Amino acid sequence: MASIGISACLAGRACRYDGKSKTNEEMTELARSGDAIIFCPESLGGLPIPRLPAEIIGGNGNDVLDGKAKVMNKAGEDVTSMFVDGAERVLSLLKFNGVTHAYMKERSPSCGVKEIYDGTFSGRIIGGPGVTTALLLRNGITVEAR
């Protein structure tokens, strides 16, 4: 049974909004070891690859989960439900497999750990988790940025 979870883009999968990866050699090696569950919350939530960039408007991932903020794409479409659905699917997958530790891609509206973009699509960064990270933390899964 796998003991860790890894954002798929870190493991070399081309699943980011721009159709690329953010390969991290350490994460790729962990994925190859067979001791990891690889996931992309945005893909699991039904978003295509590639897709328009999205950012959290009005807060961070905790605020989205609490219904106080939304995730909007650059065209102004509300994609909150897909981000929440993807986060819930990741949580179920990790819990089913007994995973208690996950490595996530910083600054993502799903996977950001301590930093996300501010919702203005200007490149400005604020503190706070993405939607999936917030849900995992609320459920006792340790999350680290890579």
Provide a short characterization of the protein structure.
Helices cover 29% and strands 21% of the residues.
- Biggest beta-sheet profile: 4 strands, parallel
Low-pLDDT regions: none
The main sheet orders its strands as 2-1-5-8
How much of the polypeptide forms β-strand, as a percent range?
A: 15-25%
Total strands:
8
Return the string of H and E elements: EHEHEHEHEEEHE
Helical coverage, percent range: 25-40%
Q: What structural class do helix, strand and pairing data support? A: alpha/beta
Q: Helical stretch count?
A: 5
- N-to-C terminal Cα separation, in Å? 23 Å
Anisotropy-based shape: globular
Mean pLDDT level = 97
Radius of gyration: 14 Å
Lay out the secondary structure.
Blueprint (H helix, E strand, L loop, with lengths): L3 E4 L17 H8 L3 E4 L1 H4 L9 E4 L3 H5 L4 E4 L6 H17 L4 E4 L10 E3 L7 E3 L3 H8 L3 E4 L1
Parallel strand pairs: 1-2, 1-5, 5-8
Antiparallel strand pairs: 3-4, 6-7
Helix pairs in contact: 4-5
